[in-house]
Amino acid sequence: MSKMTRREFGKLFVASLAGSAIGALGAPAILRANTYRVLVIGGGFGGAAAAKYVKKFDPSIDVTLVEPKEIFYTCPFSNWVMGGLREMKDIGHGYSAIKNEHHINVIHDLVVEIDAANKTAKTQGGKTIQYDRAIVSPGIDFKWDAVEGYDEATSEKIPHAFQAGKQTEILRDQLRSMKQGGTVIIHAPQNPFRCPPGPYERASLFANYLKKNNPKAKVLILDEKEKFSKQMLFQKGWQKLYGDMVEWRPGSAGGAVTRVDAATMKLETEFGAEKADVINFIPPQWAGKIARDAGLTDESGWCPINQQTFESTLHPNIHVVGDAALAGAMPKSGFAASSQAKVTALAVVDILHGRTPKPPSLANTCYSLIGDKYGISVAAVYKYDDKENKIVSIKGAGGLTPNDADENFLSAEAAYAEGWYASLSKDIWG
């Protein structure tokens, strides 16, 4: 919390007597203006952006960001690492700029309890943090044991690699050491899950790596769904670049997995068992643990919110952004989380100052790489629809890579993808 100098106190006291619109609020409200405390839990795309933009919108607010990791590795571009196109250091982001340049109190600890009634949070390290408003961005957790045979311990042998870091390295190393002519299976879960195009970009960049280093290998996608994001563009790219190396199998054709057998490296489906040399099993997901423990989730496992302000409908004074939130038509993506964070940051500042937040405008842009110089993208713009009482996509806004795009267009999309990641990361952690 910042301390008020005698001179600053005098200025505020005079202002409170000025009879202006500000003065009409009365001295107690103004004196409190420098004491507002915003606690942000989680330092990923949503949390780090929220902390930074609360401070940008009102530098007088004390902002505390609690994040366990000192380096945050992003899920976006982790497929590039596993495909040999980037190194781990390229997707790791620290908090020095947020702390030193944007003057946010960064605590590397884990929040283990939120007391919504008393507006406090406790950390694993023993700290108790008070807040006036909290913004929770916990990301996703996995529903361990939702599929027989797959639990957290099994993920050391059969990685999910959908939370970047050690899991990314495990799967990258398995791919590189796979025998010649081997098979890698990627299991894609039912919706909703983090980064809807993620499993399919992963299959693309695995094939891109294997084509150069293990050309007789095969990539099989077992999918719980019947369709997926950017499907036509992905399948066209796979056929053009990799021929029969990539096979996608929907749920109705044997893609639904009923059991994981880590000992024999087999996945059982209604159509029989599939054996692999490398398995990437992406399990069903729900909101991060602290959101569930704090009572911010409903029966869906995700967090219901007021979709104008992202304030929880279950606990007042707590806002939820990013993958954990039920945010209408918006996908669970890093860019969407950062967009939600900025809207939420402004709403929090408005609420603290007694102003009514304006209806939000939001956006999402997502690039996927199919080959070294073969990129595709999707973009959408969203608004709050007061008739439907939720966030909806605006028809005619945004777009998708044309299905008949030529090589120059696709090569440009691949270059745009690099710029997209660099600018997004700089905006959040820079």
UniProtKB/TrEMBL annotation:
Keywords: FAD, Flavoprotein
Flavocytochrome c sulphide dehydrogenase flavin-binding domain residues: 359-429
Record Gene3D superfamilies: FAD/NAD(P)-binding domain (3.50.50.60), Flavocytochrome c sulphide dehydrogenase, flavin-binding domain (3.90.760.10)
Keyword Flavoprotein carried by entry: yes
UniProt domain Sulfide dehydrogenase [flavocytochrome c] flavoprotein chain central: residue ranges: 168-283
UniProt KW Protein transport keyword: no
GO molecular function: flavin adenine dinucleotide binding; oxidoreductase activity
Residue ranges constituting the FAD/NAD(P)-binding domain according to the UniProt record: 36-150
Protein name, as recorded: Flavocytochrome c sulphide dehydrogenase flavin-binding
Species this protein is from: Chloroherpeton thalassium (strain ATCC 35110 / GB-78)
Phylogenetic placement of the source organism: Bacteria, Pseudomonadati, Chlorobiota, Chlorobiia, Chlorobiales
